[in-house]
Amino acid sequence: MDPITIFIVATLMMLANGWVLGLMRNDFPEALRPSAGTWRTATLLLAASAVLYAVQYRLPLGLASPMANGLVLLGCTGYWRALRQFYGLPDRLWLLAPAIVGIGGIAWFAIARPHTGMRVLILSGSCAFLLLACFALLASQKSHDGARSRRVMASLFAAVAAFTVFRAGYFLLKGVSPSFDVTGDGAWINMASPMITAILPVVGTTGFLLMCSQRIGRQWELAASTDYLTGLANRRTLVAVGEQRFAQAGARGGGLALALIDIDHFKAINDCHGHAVGDVALRHVAGHLQASCSGADFAARHGGEEFVVLWDAADSRAARAAGERLRRLVATRPLSVDGLPLAMTISLGVALKNEGDSSFDELLHRADEALYAAKTGGRNRVEVAG
Fold first, then answer.
1. Beta bridge partners of 348
2. 306, β-bridge pairs
3. What CATH number is given to the structural domain containing 85?
4. pLDDT at 60 over 60
5. Does position 17 have pLDDT exceeding 80, yes or no?
6. Predicted pLDDT at 348
7. What CATH code is carried by the domain that includes residue 379?
8. Percent above pLDDT 90 for the chain
């Protein structure tokens, strides 16, 4: 198969991928649509460049090839922008700088001072920079995103960048002609170029769709396990984690403490300030509980104005001390409403797993009894179940 045919086949594959992505774009969540739209545009730009490469010998050499080079740079810039949008990074005008500099340099050495070697160097350098920028962005998300599709995408960008640099070095060492001769010793690299170029718009688009799919899956999992208002684990997750921790504590003989927490006079906050402020108050307390957690500590919303915190505690003294830290944290950091402080307190009922507990529900029930004692005893206090 000759290079021209390969370019035509690659173009058809790119167009097909762009078409599929266009069909699927409206099925994506609103947050992913800008990224999907930019990726599709970048794919179509590379398809247009492949068309120009395929017909370059039927057009003036100083016209088709520089235009195709420019489209490649804009396509790579589009992929960089699409990935930034995918990860919620802002748009910046300087993203266009590598493409603008590259297009300007290519035009200068194609029209004003024709020099094929400089064109190859500028195009390859600009492309490699953009591809490595995409690789670096994907690699930087390692701690936030363990998706295998992200690692595959990073590998694709790195591989294409490496080939781009190799191709430039090959052409410069061989002394490529202005026509980029596709016969003789250099034919193999001209045949490889369109195939490697098609990796990102073809294989890369599949990888991008997998990234979107995995993002949607994680969002559904998060929605199913998280309280929408506070961001803490919901009751369903609390039960699952609680039963697991209860079983682990029994197996290893370790301590497990549970604090059932209630916001004092929460109804009065809703009645005096409205439910919107009540929601802010719930998030305020949830934020303090989450901030207090470390290591194996676990915080969840039990329902209404009640929360639960699990932590390891060896005895009732350690459990009471942990509860007191939570109580003081909320009491000493009031909520601000219209610039004015709104004092808030919490009552805590704490229970430690003991030999008489046969299930997590029993531990939770004893903590509820201790909470009732804390509320009837004056609120803003910690009671530990006997």
1. 261, 382
2. 262, 303
3. 1.20.1070
4. yes
5. no
6. 95
7. 3.30.70.270
8. 41
- pLDDT over 80 at 196, yes or no: no
Place of tokens 């545009």: 41
pTM for the whole structure: 0.69
CA distances 232 to 228, 252, 292, 295, Å, are 8, 27, 13, 16
The answer to whether the CB of 273 falls within 8 A of the CB of 342 is: yes
> Where does a domain end: 159, 189, 224?
224
Q: Are residues 187 and 276 in the same domain?
A: no
- In whole angstroms, what separates CA 334 from the centre of its chain? 33
pLDDT of residue 182: 38
Instruction: Please give the pLDDT value at position 278.
Output: 92
Do residues 258 and 197 share a domain? no
**Which residues are within 8 A (CB) of 2 and not within 5 positions of it... i.e. 6 or more apart?**
182, 191
pLDDT (0 to 100) of residue 97: 95
Q: What is the mean pLDDT of residues 170-181?
A: 64
What are the CB-based long-range contacts (under 8 Å, 24+) for 26-29?
28/212, 28/216, 29/216, 29/219
The whole domain housing 176 covers 3-224
Domain match, 185 and 37 both:
yes
Any domain includes 230: no
Distance of alpha carbon 104 from alpha carbon 96, whole angstroms: 12
Domain boundary among 205, 224, 243: 224
Q: 131: Cβ–Cβ under 8 A, 6 or more apart, which residues?
A: 76, 157, 158, 160, 161, 164
Same domain, 129 and 168: yes
- Closest by Cα among 131, 30, 112 to 72: 131
Same domain, 131 and 55: yes
d(CA 349, CA 334): 21
Please provide the DSSP assignment of 157-197 as one string: HHHHHHHHHHHHHHHHHHT--TT---SGGGHHHHHHHHHHH
Clarify whether residues 214 and 242 are in a common domain: no
Q: Do residues 153 and 245 both lie within one domain?
A: no
Highest mean pLDDT among 130-139, 203-212, 284-293: 130-139
